[in-house]
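Batch job 17 of 40 flagged for manual review because the log was empty.
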Amino acid sequence: IFPGNCWAFKGHQGQVVIKLPARVYLTAITLQHISKDASPSGTIISAPKDIAVFVSLLGTSGGVDADRDEETLLGVFTYSVEKNPTQTFPLKNMLLPRAFSHVKLLVKSNWGNEWYTCIYRVKVHGKMENQKASSQDQD
């Protein structure tokens, strides 16, 4: 019933890089915000709207190119305030058949709050590198 704490950043744009506990073959990302019913103000205009997900190739080669920071876009999606507060979006990882240890979430806009944007939970889905042959997804 109580909305709890969110990760808030100033304005309507922001980004976060998430370090995963292991290298993961990414398949999807889940984003969660509170519902209108759980919001003390009755609105959820601080929810993120347009979001992009990237992985970084930084340090993956281990050689001379390890200092290059090339980001690859795995998906662009819109979080809808009219749908379930927990929404999962598939990532386009077919072009990158490798595991990554960092994911960047770039929030391009929110639903109208000019002062801040809130994210309550982010889940990264995929298969851990050492369990690639397994059919079970890891969160």
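Reviewer: the log was empty due to a logging misconfiguration, but the result itself is present. The chain has one domain: 7-60+69-128. Unflagging and moving on to job 18.
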